[in-house]
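REQUEST ID: PR-0412
SUBMITTED BY: lab tech R.K.
PRIORITY: routine
TASK: structure prediction, single protein chain
INPUT:
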Amino acid sequence: MALPTVVITDPLPGRRVAEPVRFTVDAALDGDLWIARTDAGEHVHCQRLAHGAARGRTTFAAVVSFEERAELTLIGPASGTVEGIRRREPREADAFVRLDTGYFDLEMCTGTARGTGDSKWGLRHFSATAEGVDLLPSGNNAIGGFYGPFFTPENGLVNPPEHTTVDIEAVEEGPVLHHYRMHGTVPDGLLEELRGKRFSVDWIFTHGTPYFTRTYRVDDFQTVINGRSVTDKITVGDEFESGVGDIVFTRFEAYDGTRYRAGDPYAQELKSTVSSLLESETDRSEKFRTFKALLTDGLDSAHWDLYWRLLSTWEGALPDIDLAEHLRRVMKSSHIRADLGDRPWIFARGGVEVSAVPDETIFAGASDKTVEYHPGRGQAMIWQTSRPSGAFQIVQRRQSGWVNWGTNGENECPELPVGARIKTAYGPFIDEWTAVADGLESPPRVTVERG
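STATUS: complete
OUTPUT:
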């Protein structure tokens, strides 16, 4: 049987490095791994995907480095041991898998739902192997959690990776591509319309590729957050850490310039409420007293989630009736302050030094391509979404060493459409980050020509 030729063309100038491609041939081919030869005479491994192909057809995944155009001609099944994605010994007790992708060293966790920072699901350790710097060294933060509208003060929940677990399904595992699907159910909060909702997250990693891909799906929902109707939009939050007094990223920038407001009145109101509760002489529950003891060193240096948990119905530190009243006051004041004219919109062509603004927080306008970076370290984290997020909350807090990229506007209002695909690249890309983002947005075109 004559095997087909796969033609890969790049719609953009420049060189692609370890770019993942998929193609389907009109034949049922046996063997989990095949070899293809490029028009330059190099061999490329093609992983047969177990899911997605119709009867009588075979779908492969490969990673290819090329400039402008490349051709792959299938030769036949591979034999022997091949270089590719490999497993490593995990560090966390709830780790599902730790991978060395040939570019990233990452650990995916199921979470434990104990309500503590180290119980989150998502990526709890993450580094570029060439750099060797873990962006989540303590295991108390995670990449990949999603928050609003479910995990908001208005629903009496705060942090889903801490208050629920996920089951993880290995959809594809091979030397070229790993695909994992998380399944979970959102805990019930105060709002009836948000109860009993399920979610899934698809994660895809490929060998040697400097980015990974994920997609969030959630049961249909509609509610009101920050006084606005929210239909099938979520907050995705990626966290990073480096220890008190330092931060992994010191700048944020959106493609074509950053439109933003500085400061976070809601955080101020929330912190003020927690402070008042801690200073109150009212005799409260044992759980409340536990939180009070944990927060004796001060709110500014505490883990951000710690005092949010005090106002979570899941924790039970306060009766729901008291919790709802405290949250009502917080949200009323926050709504008013967010719409005052004392925080003007600012436009910046270059990166915004977030830690230098009030509350070490900015709220940026709509974009589908954004970056956080550290000029001194030379490293950049780039996000490209298949649909724009209507807003972003960016935190770079030296007081606690915590950095956050979140797809929400003020008062935790979610802004990323459910189902949007997120591509996230990391590496020494500061000077070329817009070109990298363009490449994430416009993948190579792949066609299959009959042999």
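NOTES: The first helix runs from residue 160 to 163.
REVIEWED BY: pending
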